[in-house]
Design a protein that fits this description.
With 457 residues, the protein is an all-alpha fold. Helices cover 67% and strands 2% of the residues.
Length: 457
Protein backbone atom coordinates (compact mmCIF):
# COMPACT_ATOMS: atom_id res chain seq x y z
CA UNK A 1 0.00 0.00 0.00
CA UNK A 2 2.70 2.44 1.01
CA UNK A 3 6.10 2.66 -0.46
CA UNK A 4 9.29 4.36 0.70
CA UNK A 5 10.18 7.85 -0.43
CA UNK A 6 11.00 8.05 -4.09
CA UNK A 7 14.20 9.26 -5.69
CA UNK A 8 13.03 12.17 -7.77
CA UNK A 9 16.36 13.45 -8.97
CA UNK A 10 16.77 11.41 -12.14
CA UNK A 11 13.20 10.78 -13.34
CA UNK A 12 12.33 12.58 -16.55
CA UNK A 13 9.42 12.50 -18.99
CA UNK A 14 10.52 12.86 -22.62
CA UNK A 15 8.20 14.43 -25.16
CA UNK A 16 9.10 12.30 -28.18
CA UNK A 17 7.45 14.57 -30.71
CA UNK A 18 9.23 17.73 -29.64
CA UNK A 19 12.40 16.07 -28.38
CA UNK A 20 12.31 18.20 -25.26
CA UNK A 21 12.46 17.26 -21.60
CA UNK A 22 9.35 18.14 -19.62
CA UNK A 23 9.97 18.94 -16.00
CA UNK A 24 7.16 17.53 -13.86
CA UNK A 25 6.84 19.68 -10.75
CA UNK A 26 4.61 22.18 -9.01
CA UNK A 27 4.81 25.60 -10.66
CA UNK A 28 5.34 28.90 -8.86
CA UNK A 29 2.22 30.70 -10.02
CA UNK A 30 0.89 32.31 -6.81
CA UNK A 31 1.87 35.92 -6.29
CA UNK A 32 1.21 38.04 -3.20
CA UNK A 33 -2.48 38.79 -4.01
CA UNK A 34 -3.18 35.10 -4.63
CA UNK A 35 -1.44 34.11 -1.39
CA UNK A 36 -3.49 36.64 0.59
CA UNK A 37 -6.66 35.42 -1.12
CA UNK A 38 -5.84 31.81 -0.24
CA UNK A 39 -5.41 32.64 3.45
CA UNK A 40 -8.52 34.80 3.68
CA UNK A 41 -10.63 32.14 1.96
CA UNK A 42 -9.41 29.32 4.19
CA UNK A 43 -9.69 31.33 7.42
CA UNK A 44 -13.13 32.83 6.89
CA UNK A 45 -14.82 29.54 5.98
CA UNK A 46 -17.90 29.16 8.11
CA UNK A 47 -16.28 29.91 11.49
CA UNK A 48 -16.94 33.64 11.68
CA UNK A 49 -20.61 32.93 11.00
CA UNK A 50 -20.81 30.63 14.04
CA UNK A 51 -18.15 31.41 16.70
CA UNK A 52 -18.81 35.12 17.50
CA UNK A 53 -21.67 34.25 19.85
CA UNK A 54 -19.47 31.71 21.64
CA UNK A 55 -16.67 34.26 22.14
CA UNK A 56 -19.17 36.82 23.40
CA UNK A 57 -20.65 34.26 25.81
CA UNK A 58 -17.26 33.60 27.41
CA UNK A 59 -16.27 37.30 27.33
CA UNK A 60 -19.49 38.71 28.80
CA UNK A 61 -19.12 42.24 27.41
CA UNK A 62 -18.64 44.07 24.13
CA UNK A 63 -15.37 45.61 25.33
CA UNK A 64 -13.72 42.37 26.42
CA UNK A 65 -15.03 40.55 23.35
CA UNK A 66 -13.38 43.19 21.13
CA UNK A 67 -10.10 42.85 23.03
CA UNK A 68 -10.23 39.05 22.59
CA UNK A 69 -10.71 39.32 18.82
CA UNK A 70 -7.86 41.83 18.46
CA UNK A 71 -5.45 39.88 20.67
CA UNK A 72 -6.39 36.63 18.93
CA UNK A 73 -5.41 38.23 15.62
CA UNK A 74 -2.18 39.51 17.18
CA UNK A 75 -1.23 36.11 18.62
CA UNK A 76 -1.99 34.50 15.27
CA UNK A 77 0.28 37.07 13.61
CA UNK A 78 3.14 36.25 15.98
CA UNK A 79 2.66 32.56 15.23
CA UNK A 80 2.59 33.35 11.50
CA UNK A 81 5.94 35.14 11.71
CA UNK A 82 7.47 32.03 13.27
CA UNK A 83 6.07 29.86 10.49
CA UNK A 84 7.35 32.35 7.90
CA UNK A 85 10.86 31.80 9.28
CA UNK A 86 10.41 28.03 9.13
CA UNK A 87 9.25 28.27 5.51
CA UNK A 88 12.61 29.77 4.52
CA UNK A 89 14.58 27.09 6.38
CA UNK A 90 12.44 24.30 4.92
CA UNK A 91 11.29 25.73 1.56
CA UNK A 92 8.96 22.84 0.75
CA UNK A 93 5.21 22.41 0.53
CA UNK A 94 3.51 20.77 3.49
CA UNK A 95 3.68 23.47 6.15
CA UNK A 96 4.03 22.08 9.68
CA UNK A 97 4.26 18.56 8.28
CA UNK A 98 7.39 19.45 6.32
CA UNK A 99 8.92 21.29 9.30
CA UNK A 100 8.36 18.33 11.65
CA UNK A 101 9.88 15.92 9.13
CA UNK A 102 12.94 18.12 8.56
CA UNK A 103 13.52 18.72 12.26
CA UNK A 104 12.87 15.29 13.77
CA UNK A 105 12.78 12.52 11.13
CA UNK A 106 16.49 11.64 11.36
CA UNK A 107 16.69 11.79 15.17
CA UNK A 108 15.26 8.31 15.72
CA UNK A 109 14.24 5.55 13.33
CA UNK A 110 10.79 5.05 14.87
CA UNK A 111 9.94 8.20 16.84
CA UNK A 112 11.64 10.72 14.52
CA UNK A 113 9.11 10.60 11.65
CA UNK A 114 6.17 10.02 14.03
CA UNK A 115 5.23 13.70 14.73
CA UNK A 116 4.89 14.47 11.02
CA UNK A 117 2.87 11.30 10.45
CA UNK A 118 0.49 12.05 13.35
CA UNK A 119 0.04 15.59 12.04
CA UNK A 120 -0.92 14.16 8.67
CA UNK A 121 -3.14 11.57 10.37
CA UNK A 122 -5.12 14.15 12.36
CA UNK A 123 -5.24 17.03 9.88
CA UNK A 124 -5.61 15.23 6.55
CA UNK A 125 -7.54 12.11 7.47
CA UNK A 126 -9.95 13.68 9.96
CA UNK A 127 -9.91 17.44 10.45
CA UNK A 128 -9.78 18.76 6.89
CA UNK A 129 -12.28 16.34 5.27
CA UNK A 130 -14.64 16.82 8.24
CA UNK A 131 -14.39 20.60 7.85
CA UNK A 132 -15.01 20.33 4.12
CA UNK A 133 -18.05 18.13 4.72
CA UNK A 134 -19.46 20.52 7.32
CA UNK A 135 -18.88 23.49 5.02
CA UNK A 136 -20.78 21.65 2.28
CA UNK A 137 -23.68 21.00 4.64
CA UNK A 138 -23.86 24.64 5.68
CA UNK A 139 -23.67 25.69 2.02
CA UNK A 140 -26.51 23.32 1.13
CA UNK A 141 -28.72 24.64 3.93
CA UNK A 142 -28.13 28.26 2.90
CA UNK A 143 -28.83 27.59 -0.78
CA UNK A 144 -31.90 25.45 -0.05
CA UNK A 145 -33.38 27.99 2.34
CA UNK A 146 -32.77 30.83 -0.07
CA UNK A 147 -34.04 29.32 -3.30
CA UNK A 148 -36.78 27.04 -1.99
CA UNK A 149 -39.48 29.55 -3.05
CA UNK A 150 -38.44 28.94 -6.66
CA UNK A 151 -40.34 25.65 -6.54
CA UNK A 152 -43.29 26.78 -4.41
CA UNK A 153 -46.42 28.79 -5.02
CA UNK A 154 -45.06 31.52 -2.76
CA UNK A 155 -42.40 32.50 -5.29
CA UNK A 156 -43.91 35.76 -6.56
CA UNK A 157 -44.93 37.23 -3.22
CA UNK A 158 -41.72 36.04 -1.55
CA UNK A 159 -39.32 37.72 -3.97
CA UNK A 160 -41.52 40.76 -4.35
CA UNK A 161 -41.10 41.34 -0.63
CA UNK A 162 -37.36 40.71 -0.89
CA UNK A 163 -37.04 43.31 -3.65
CA UNK A 164 -38.91 45.86 -1.56
CA UNK A 165 -36.67 45.18 1.44
CA UNK A 166 -33.48 45.45 -0.61
CA UNK A 167 -34.54 48.70 -2.24
CA UNK A 168 -36.20 50.16 0.84
CA UNK A 169 -34.31 52.75 2.85
CA UNK A 170 -36.04 51.46 5.97
CA UNK A 171 -33.50 48.62 6.10
CA UNK A 172 -30.77 51.13 6.92
CA UNK A 173 -32.68 52.34 9.96
CA UNK A 174 -32.95 48.95 11.66
CA UNK A 175 -29.52 49.15 13.29
CA UNK A 176 -28.85 50.53 16.76
CA UNK A 177 -25.70 51.99 18.35
CA UNK A 178 -23.33 49.53 20.03
CA UNK A 179 -22.15 50.52 23.49
CA UNK A 180 -18.45 49.79 23.98
CA UNK A 181 -18.37 48.81 27.64
CA UNK A 182 -16.69 46.28 29.88
CA UNK A 183 -19.74 45.90 32.11
CA UNK A 184 -20.46 42.22 32.68
CA UNK A 185 -16.96 41.03 31.69
CA UNK A 186 -16.12 37.52 32.86
CA UNK A 187 -12.63 37.80 34.31
CA UNK A 188 -11.95 34.20 35.24
CA UNK A 189 -9.21 31.91 33.98
CA UNK A 190 -11.64 29.42 32.50
CA UNK A 191 -13.76 32.04 30.70
CA UNK A 192 -10.78 33.96 29.32
CA UNK A 193 -9.04 30.81 28.10
CA UNK A 194 -12.17 29.54 26.36
CA UNK A 195 -12.81 32.96 24.79
CA UNK A 196 -9.30 32.96 23.31
CA UNK A 197 -9.68 29.26 22.47
CA UNK A 198 -12.53 29.99 20.06
CA UNK A 199 -11.15 33.38 19.00
CA UNK A 200 -7.77 32.04 17.89
CA UNK A 201 -9.41 28.92 16.45
CA UNK A 202 -11.47 31.16 14.15
CA UNK A 203 -8.21 32.55 12.73
CA UNK A 204 -6.90 29.02 12.21
CA UNK A 205 -6.01 28.38 8.58
CA UNK A 206 -3.57 31.24 8.03
CA UNK A 207 -0.77 28.62 7.78
CA UNK A 208 -2.28 27.35 4.51
CA UNK A 209 0.10 29.56 2.55
CA UNK A 210 3.07 27.71 4.07
CA UNK A 211 1.50 24.47 2.90
CA UNK A 212 1.88 25.53 -0.74
CA UNK A 213 5.38 27.01 -0.49
CA UNK A 214 6.57 25.43 -3.74
CA UNK A 215 3.88 27.30 -5.68
CA UNK A 216 4.50 30.74 -4.16
CA UNK A 217 6.51 33.27 -6.13
CA UNK A 218 9.42 34.61 -4.06
CA UNK A 219 8.37 32.60 -0.97
CA UNK A 220 11.14 34.10 1.14
CA UNK A 221 9.30 37.43 0.91
CA UNK A 222 5.70 36.73 -0.02
CA UNK A 223 4.86 34.20 2.70
CA UNK A 224 5.61 36.68 5.48
CA UNK A 225 3.93 39.54 3.62
CA UNK A 226 0.82 37.50 2.87
CA UNK A 227 0.25 36.30 6.43
CA UNK A 228 0.73 39.77 7.90
CA UNK A 229 -1.53 41.45 5.34
CA UNK A 230 -4.24 38.80 5.54
CA UNK A 231 -4.30 38.59 9.35
CA UNK A 232 -4.41 42.37 9.69
CA UNK A 233 -7.31 42.43 7.23
CA UNK A 234 -9.09 39.57 8.98
CA UNK A 235 -8.70 41.15 12.41
CA UNK A 236 -10.37 44.36 11.24
CA UNK A 237 -13.02 42.36 9.39
CA UNK A 238 -13.86 40.13 12.36
CA UNK A 239 -14.18 43.09 14.75
CA UNK A 240 -16.39 44.95 12.26
CA UNK A 241 -18.56 41.88 11.72
CA UNK A 242 -19.11 41.51 15.46
CA UNK A 243 -20.19 45.13 15.72
CA UNK A 244 -22.44 44.71 12.69
CA UNK A 245 -24.12 41.73 14.33
CA UNK A 246 -24.62 43.70 17.55
CA UNK A 247 -26.30 46.62 15.77
CA UNK A 248 -29.22 44.32 15.00
CA UNK A 249 -29.18 41.83 17.88
CA UNK A 250 -29.20 42.03 21.65
CA UNK A 251 -26.26 40.48 23.49
CA UNK A 252 -28.37 37.59 24.89
CA UNK A 253 -29.71 36.78 21.40
CA UNK A 254 -26.19 37.12 20.01
CA UNK A 255 -24.83 34.61 22.54
CA UNK A 256 -27.66 32.09 22.05
CA UNK A 257 -27.52 32.18 18.25
CA UNK A 258 -26.16 29.03 16.58
CA UNK A 259 -25.82 30.84 13.22
CA UNK A 260 -25.26 34.52 13.84
CA UNK A 261 -25.20 35.51 10.17
CA UNK A 262 -28.62 33.97 9.55
CA UNK A 263 -30.20 35.69 12.55
CA UNK A 264 -28.54 38.97 11.57
CA UNK A 265 -30.00 38.66 8.08
CA UNK A 266 -33.45 37.99 9.52
CA UNK A 267 -33.26 41.05 11.76
CA UNK A 268 -31.89 43.50 9.18
CA UNK A 269 -33.32 42.32 5.87
CA UNK A 270 -36.29 40.22 6.89
CA UNK A 271 -37.31 38.27 3.83
CA UNK A 272 -34.49 39.98 2.01
CA UNK A 273 -32.01 37.85 3.94
CA UNK A 274 -31.12 36.35 0.56
CA UNK A 275 -28.36 38.97 0.53
CA UNK A 276 -26.66 37.39 3.52
CA UNK A 277 -27.31 33.86 2.26
CA UNK A 278 -25.72 34.58 -1.13
CA UNK A 279 -22.59 36.12 0.38
CA UNK A 280 -22.22 33.35 2.95
CA UNK A 281 -22.65 30.72 0.22
CA UNK A 282 -20.00 32.41 -1.93
CA UNK A 283 -17.65 32.50 1.06
CA UNK A 284 -18.21 28.81 1.71
CA UNK A 285 -17.45 27.90 -1.92
CA UNK A 286 -14.23 29.90 -1.84
CA UNK A 287 -13.23 28.37 1.48
CA UNK A 288 -13.87 24.82 0.25
CA UNK A 289 -11.86 25.27 -2.95
CA UNK A 290 -8.96 26.88 -1.10
CA UNK A 291 -8.97 24.15 1.55
CA UNK A 292 -8.81 21.41 -1.09
CA UNK A 293 -5.99 23.29 -2.83
CA UNK A 294 -4.01 23.52 0.42
CA UNK A 295 -4.72 20.04 1.84
CA UNK A 296 -3.87 18.25 -1.41
CA UNK A 297 -0.35 19.69 -1.13
CA UNK A 298 -0.04 18.15 2.33
CA UNK A 299 -0.91 14.74 0.87
CA UNK A 300 1.67 15.42 -1.83
CA UNK A 301 4.35 16.20 0.76
CA UNK A 302 3.53 13.14 2.89
CA UNK A 303 3.64 10.85 -0.16
CA UNK A 304 6.95 12.31 -1.26
CA UNK A 305 8.39 11.33 2.13
CA UNK A 306 7.01 7.81 1.85
CA UNK A 307 4.43 8.10 4.65
CA UNK A 308 1.40 7.50 2.43
CA UNK A 309 0.88 5.83 -0.94
CA UNK A 310 3.41 7.03 -3.53
CA UNK A 311 0.83 7.87 -6.20
CA UNK A 312 -0.42 10.76 -4.04
CA UNK A 313 2.79 12.60 -4.93
CA UNK A 314 2.16 12.27 -8.67
CA UNK A 315 1.55 15.43 -10.69
CA UNK A 316 -0.63 15.92 -13.76
CA UNK A 317 1.49 16.17 -16.90
CA UNK A 318 -0.18 19.30 -18.24
CA UNK A 319 -1.82 21.05 -15.29
CA UNK A 320 1.12 20.46 -12.94
CA UNK A 321 -1.18 19.81 -9.97
CA UNK A 322 -1.28 16.79 -7.62
CA UNK A 323 -4.48 15.38 -9.12
CA UNK A 324 -4.56 12.08 -7.15
CA UNK A 325 -4.20 13.98 -3.87
CA UNK A 326 -7.08 16.30 -4.79
CA UNK A 327 -9.32 13.33 -5.62
CA UNK A 328 -8.50 11.54 -2.36
CA UNK A 329 -9.20 14.63 -0.23
CA UNK A 330 -12.53 15.27 -1.94
CA UNK A 331 -13.41 11.59 -1.63
CA UNK A 332 -12.75 11.62 2.12
CA UNK A 333 -14.87 14.76 2.47
CA UNK A 334 -17.72 13.01 0.66
CA UNK A 335 -17.54 10.07 3.06
CA UNK A 336 -17.75 12.36 6.08
CA UNK A 337 -20.55 14.30 4.39
CA UNK A 338 -22.61 11.11 4.25
CA UNK A 339 -22.12 10.68 8.01
CA UNK A 340 -24.18 13.81 8.59
CA UNK A 341 -24.06 16.32 11.43
CA UNK A 342 -22.39 13.85 13.79
CA UNK A 343 -19.05 15.01 12.37
CA UNK A 344 -19.43 18.30 14.30
CA UNK A 345 -18.51 16.45 17.50
CA UNK A 346 -15.51 14.89 15.74
CA UNK A 347 -14.27 18.34 14.69
CA UNK A 348 -14.52 19.54 18.29
CA UNK A 349 -12.40 16.59 19.38
CA UNK A 350 -9.71 17.33 16.79
CA UNK A 351 -9.63 21.07 17.62
CA UNK A 352 -7.98 20.19 20.92
CA UNK A 353 -5.15 18.37 19.14
CA UNK A 354 -4.49 21.34 16.85
CA UNK A 355 -3.16 23.36 19.81
CA UNK A 356 -0.66 20.57 20.56
CA UNK A 357 0.61 20.63 16.97
CA UNK A 358 0.77 24.44 17.03
CA UNK A 359 2.86 24.27 20.21
CA UNK A 360 5.20 21.75 18.57
CA UNK A 361 5.55 24.08 15.57
CA UNK A 362 6.81 26.85 17.88
CA UNK A 363 9.26 24.42 19.49
CA UNK A 364 10.47 23.45 16.01
CA UNK A 365 11.70 27.02 15.51
CA UNK A 366 14.23 26.45 18.31
CA UNK A 367 15.09 22.93 17.11
CA UNK A 368 15.96 24.11 13.60
CA UNK A 369 17.83 27.14 14.96
CA UNK A 370 20.03 24.64 16.82
CA UNK A 371 20.26 21.95 14.16
CA UNK A 372 20.59 24.23 11.13
CA UNK A 373 22.23 27.43 12.40
CA UNK A 374 23.60 28.38 8.97
CA UNK A 375 20.35 27.87 7.05
CA UNK A 376 18.94 30.72 4.98
CA UNK A 377 16.79 32.96 7.19
CA UNK A 378 15.89 36.25 5.45
CA UNK A 379 13.86 37.13 8.53
CA UNK A 380 14.28 35.79 12.05
CA UNK A 381 11.83 36.25 14.89
CA UNK A 382 13.02 37.23 18.35
CA UNK A 383 13.61 34.12 20.44
CA UNK A 384 10.98 35.22 22.92
CA UNK A 385 8.20 35.14 20.28
CA UNK A 386 7.93 31.34 19.79
CA UNK A 387 8.10 30.89 23.58
CA UNK A 388 5.28 33.39 24.12
CA UNK A 389 3.05 31.81 21.49
CA UNK A 390 3.85 28.27 22.71
CA UNK A 391 2.87 29.35 26.23
CA UNK A 392 -0.49 30.62 25.00
CA UNK A 393 -1.14 27.38 23.10
CA UNK A 394 -0.08 25.30 26.10
CA UNK A 395 -2.47 27.17 28.39
CA UNK A 396 -5.29 26.59 25.89
CA UNK A 397 -4.39 22.91 25.93
CA UNK A 398 -4.08 22.41 29.69
CA UNK A 399 -6.86 24.60 31.14
CA UNK A 400 -9.74 23.01 29.16
CA UNK A 401 -8.32 19.62 30.11
CA UNK A 402 -8.88 20.55 33.76
CA UNK A 403 -12.13 22.53 33.53
CA UNK A 404 -14.03 20.84 30.70
CA UNK A 405 -15.59 17.33 30.55
CA UNK A 406 -12.77 14.83 29.95
CA UNK A 407 -14.60 12.72 27.34
CA UNK A 408 -13.44 14.65 24.29
CA UNK A 409 -9.82 14.57 25.42
CA UNK A 410 -9.91 10.84 26.04
CA UNK A 411 -11.28 10.31 22.54
CA UNK A 412 -8.58 12.62 21.14
CA UNK A 413 -5.91 10.50 22.84
CA UNK A 414 -7.47 7.35 21.41
CA UNK A 415 -7.40 8.83 17.89
CA UNK A 416 -3.68 9.56 18.29
CA UNK A 417 -3.10 6.05 19.62
CA UNK A 418 -4.94 4.65 16.60
CA UNK A 419 -2.59 6.65 14.37
CA UNK A 420 0.43 5.11 16.08
CA UNK A 421 -1.06 1.63 15.67
CA UNK A 422 -1.47 2.32 11.93
CA UNK A 423 1.99 3.89 11.67
CA UNK A 424 3.90 0.83 12.89
CA UNK A 425 2.86 -1.78 10.27
CA UNK A 426 2.10 0.45 7.29
CA UNK A 427 4.85 3.08 7.50
CA UNK A 428 7.60 1.93 9.87
CA UNK A 429 7.48 -1.78 8.95
CA UNK A 430 6.74 -1.81 5.24
CA UNK A 431 6.56 -5.27 3.71
CA UNK A 432 7.79 -6.24 0.21
CA UNK A 433 4.28 -7.47 -0.64
CA UNK A 434 2.89 -4.04 0.18
CA UNK A 435 5.48 -2.43 -2.08
CA UNK A 436 4.42 -4.66 -4.99
CA UNK A 437 0.77 -3.70 -4.51
CA UNK A 438 1.77 -0.04 -4.29
CA UNK A 439 3.77 -0.29 -7.54
CA UNK A 440 0.85 -1.83 -9.42
CA UNK A 441 -1.58 0.76 -8.05
CA UNK A 442 0.81 3.60 -8.93
CA UNK A 443 1.11 2.41 -12.55
CA UNK A 444 -2.68 2.13 -12.79
CA UNK A 445 -3.14 5.67 -11.42
CA UNK A 446 -0.53 6.99 -13.87
CA UNK A 447 -2.43 5.54 -16.82
CA UNK A 448 -5.94 6.70 -15.96
CA UNK A 449 -5.11 10.17 -14.55
CA UNK A 450 -2.17 11.07 -16.85
CA UNK A 451 0.11 11.83 -13.92
CA UNK A 452 3.84 11.32 -13.36
CA UNK A 453 6.26 11.34 -10.42
CA UNK A 454 7.86 14.67 -9.68
CA UNK A 455 11.13 15.16 -11.57
CA UNK A 456 12.39 18.37 -9.98
CA UNK A 457 11.84 20.42 -6.84
Amino acid sequence: MIKGSQDVTNLKTVDEEQGAVNIICLKRVLGLPSAVGLIVNVVIGSGIFVTPGIVMGYSGSVGLCTVVWILSGFISSLSAMCVAELSTVVPKSGGAYAYFFAAYADLHQFFGPLPSFLYMWVILLINTPCSLALTSMIFASYVYGTFRPLVTEEFNSHYETILKDILGISVLRKGKPVQFTFDGSKITLDSLVMAFYYGIYTYNGWSSVAGVTEEIKKPDKNILRSVILSLATLTVLFVMMNYAYLTAMSIPDFILSDAVAVDFGNEVFGRGKIIISVFVAMSLIGSSLSTVFYSSRLWFAAARNGQVAEFLSYIHKKRMTPTPAVIVEVGLALIFFLLGRSIVDLIKLIAYLIWIFNTLTMITVYVLRYRQPLANRPHKVLLVVPALVATVYTVMTVVPLITQPPTRYIVSALLVLLGIVFYYPFVFRQRPAMSKVSDKLSRFIQDILHVEPQTAE
